[in-house]
Amino acid sequence: MKTLYLKNSSGWSPLQRGFPVVLFALPLLLLIASSTNGVIISEGLLRNVSTRLAVLTGENVLIVGFTVAESQPVLVRALGPTLTNFGVTGALADPTISLYNSTGGLIATNDDCKDTNQAAIGGTGKTPPNDKESAILSSLSPGNYTAIVSGKNNTTGVGLVEAYGVEPPGVENLISNVSSRGFVGTESNVMIGGVIGDHTPSAQIIVRALGPTLTQFGINNALANPTLELHDGNGNLLAFNDNWQDTNQTAIQATGFAPPNSNESAILAVINVGASITAIVRGKDNTTGVALFDVYLY
Ligand SMILES: [Ca+2]
Ligand SMILES: [Ca+2]
């Protein structure tokens, strides 16, 4: 059994069984294989992060975690109907979003983006295109945060969750790692994550897809055997990985972020400023289940 460490405002601490926010905090865990390499990500990396996948109910809701490196406003939003414009069938008709801090405290919740703070959200230029979509603008101090996207009244469908740093002039960026957990289905319901580099001149990242490890945290229908693809901004395939030991095993271990289970996936990549990388998590042979997608600087 791996020891899991949670990075919070007081530094790294081993996750205790029964930790009250384990479900919410799960995506924020840096799943490191040993206690010797508690890599603390001190510099920002990602200008924004996004994840799209089917939003179901119960343990299958879409959860995204991210770390804020510097105090600044952050916009998180959940899109559903807009995805229809991009050929997604079965989009979530009416998303809701809730934002939590690292101790599981609710910071804010939003159903429809024009319910609250409409002018300030508009000022970011990121108001969701559809009024049923959700947005929270909040000034966040350094730490770990979790956003949970659900369908209103337990409805389901494909949703997209995004987190943006709203950068005051002269301030470098904010989000230094991201992870997303949700149900991985097939076809348009595979998990899709996006990252945009904001690091000079480029950053080395490790992108992972975890499945079996989640069973240790009470997830019953974890994805047994994930695969991971990375695509560039033009949709070209950059890399594919089924099981992380297939390729670059030594280098992956050296990052301290080797997936705990041999069926899980990891890819090392370099992301340049302004470049985008899209990650697609699938179940091998079209299997389905709950997976965790995450990205770390190393
Ligand atoms: Ca809504
Ligand atoms: Ca695999």
Describe the structure.
The chain is mainly beta and 298 residues long. It has one domain. The chain contains three helices and 18 strands. The strands form two sheets. The chain has a 16-stranded antiparallel β-sheet that branches. The chain has a two-stranded antiparallel ribbon with strand order 1-2. Strand 6 and strand 7 (106-110) form a beta hairpin. It is globular and about 50 Å long. It binds calcium ion (2 copies). One calcium ion (CA) binds next to strand 14.
Note the main attributes of this structure.
single chain, about 300 residues, mainly beta, 16-stranded antiparallel sheet, two-stranded antiparallel ribbon, 3 helices, globular, binds calcium ion
Write the layout of secondary structure elements.
Elements: E1 5-8, E2 11-14, H1 22-25, E3 46-55, E4 62-68, E5 72-79, E6 95-100, E7 106-110, H2 118-123, E8 134-140, E9 143-151, E10 157-165, E11 175-184, E12 191-197, E13 202-210, E14 226-232, E15 237-241, H3 249-255, E16 265-272, E17 276-283, E18 289-297
Antiparallel strand pairs: 1-2, 3-10, 3-11, 3-12, 4-9, 4-11, 5-8, 5-10, 6-7, 6-9, 11-18, 12-17, 13-16, 13-18, 14-15, 14-17
